[in-house]
Amino acid sequence: MSELPIALVTGAAQGIGYACAESLKRDGHGLVLADISEDGVIEAAGKLGGGTVGIACDMGDPSAVGALFDEIESNHGPVRTLVNNAGIALPGDFLDYDLDAFKRVLDVNLVGVFLALQRAAKSMVKNGIEGSIVNMSSVNAKLAIPTIPAYCASKGGVMQVTKAAAIELAPHNIRVNAVGPGSIDTKMMAGVNADPESMNRMLSRTPLGRVGLPREIGEVVAFLASEKASYITGETIYIDGGRLALNYTC
């Protein structure tokens, strides 16, 4: 793997993160996968093969994020592509939402994203790497669901951190973008999938009339990491079946 450009994908044991890794592998990247589930990330790395490495890491723990990059840089070299995908939701009633839960979501979804972005960027600048960083935002950066206030806050923060980093890193030809998925068929959507009323309500707000697939996110992430997107930075691309464009339903 050391001869291939190294891409780090966080939250990669399943779902969108795994799909991103698949797309990057097809584009010729050497892969390091990180996930809080040690068994899951090792299994995912084994399925992808080709020297893919799986490392357990809690992206909400600053020391663990630092140790992750230390291990990658010592054993495989600097990261050239970072996909900041790890995230959690922790839903709850807004009026009684637990402060510890709120902080935990922000630690993983926003602070962890910032720390990984910052560390990857420092290494890229030091090594003269014109790399690409893709952060996982959400349509909930612009929309809102009252039962996931921390998630909404974190994804709005990711959108703004992406812009700030893109401006700072542009002189080094390091591009920073984000993608904002809508409703994607992952474990996070399992509750909606199991409830016909919830599913119909979601589809009524989705002009394309279906749930998105993880691979549809992975392909856009791989595009943003490639030279095909060489003049794109500071953007969030929403992959939502048209939801943000919808004014009202007939």
Write a structural description:
Helices cover 44% and strands 14% of the residues. It is of the alpha/beta class and 250 residues long. Helix 4 (99-126) runs parallel beside helix 5. The longest helix is centred in the middle third of the chain and has 28 residues, at 99-126.
CA radius of gyration is: 17 Å
What is the N-to-C succession of helices and strands? EHEHEHEHEHEHHHE
Overall SS class: alpha/beta
Major β-sheet annotation? 7 strands, parallel
The parts where pLDDT drops under 50 for at least 5 residues are none
Biggest sheet: strand arrangement? 3-2-1-4-5-6-7
Q: Total helix count?
A: 8
Q: How much beta, percentage-wise?
A: 5-15%
Helicity level, as a percent range?
Answer: 40-55%
Give the N-terminus to C-terminus distance in angstroms. Answer: 53 Å
- Could you say which overall geometry the principal axes of the C-alpha atoms support? globular
Oligomeric state as shown: single chain
Total beta strands: 7
Name the average pLDDT.
95
